[in-house]
Input
Amino acid sequence: MNNPNRNLGFSIAFLLSVTLVAGCGGTKVLKEAQPIQPMQPLAAISDQRVEATLDWVIVRDGPGTWARNADWDEYLLRVSNRSDQPIKVTQLTVVDSLDTRIEPQSGRKQLVKSSKKTARRYKESGIKVKAGRGAGTMLVAGAAVTAAGVGVGVATMGPILGAGAGAGAGAGAAVGGLLLLGPALAVGGIVRGVNNSKVNNQIELRQTKLPLEILAGEELGLTVFFPLAPSPEVVEVIYVDATGKHGLIIDTSTALDGLHIEASPE
Output
C-alpha cells in the first residue's frame, strides 16, 4: 500500500525541482563567459578623421556570450580618432533588413520588450524571427575562435517544464495537495527575478555610455546593446568635432546577412 506522506513528499520535491529547472531555463549569467577571439573584423569604414570598426556581435548562446538565452544583441566596436583634435561619439544606430532604425537600450527589460516588438513587426511581413539563428555567416566573416569551439549553444528547458507541470498537478491532486503549486511557483519566480537582476547589472556594467570622448590619436572600444535587429544592413556611427556633426555608415549586409531570420522550409 502506498504511503500518503511519502507521496506528498515526492510531490513537493518534484514540483520544486521542476520549478527550479524552469527558473534556470530563462536568461541567466553564466559562471564563465565563452571566450572569443575574432581573427578579423566583421566590417569597417573610415573618413579623413575617424575609423569605425565592428569586431563582433554577441548573439543568443553564440561565441562570446556571457548570458544564457539572451533576447538581444551586443555589438563590439572600435572607434579610432586619426585627427589632431578630440571627438565625441554621440549616437549609434542599427538599421535592420526592413529599413527600420533600431536604437540601443540600457536595460534587460527594455531590450526584451523591444525585441518582441521587432519579432511582431517581422511576423506581419511574413518573416519569422528567431534569436541567434543564421549566425553562421558572421562566424565565417569574422573567423571567430573560442576555447570551447565555434557556435556552441545551450538548449532551453521549455519542454521539460510542460511535462513536469502536468505530472506535478496530477500527483498533487492525488494527495489533496494542489495548493503546493503556489509555493513552488513562488520559488521559481524568485529565482527568475534574481537571475534577471544579475543579467541587468551585467548589461549596465558592460555597456558604453554615450557621448564618449576620444582624444586625438586614441582608439577606444565600445560595447552597445541593441534589441534584435534581423539581418541588419548598416550600423550608423555619429560623432562630433570642432567642425560639426559627422556620420559613418558601417555596411553589415554581408557579414550579418540572415542573422535572426528563421529559414523558410523548402
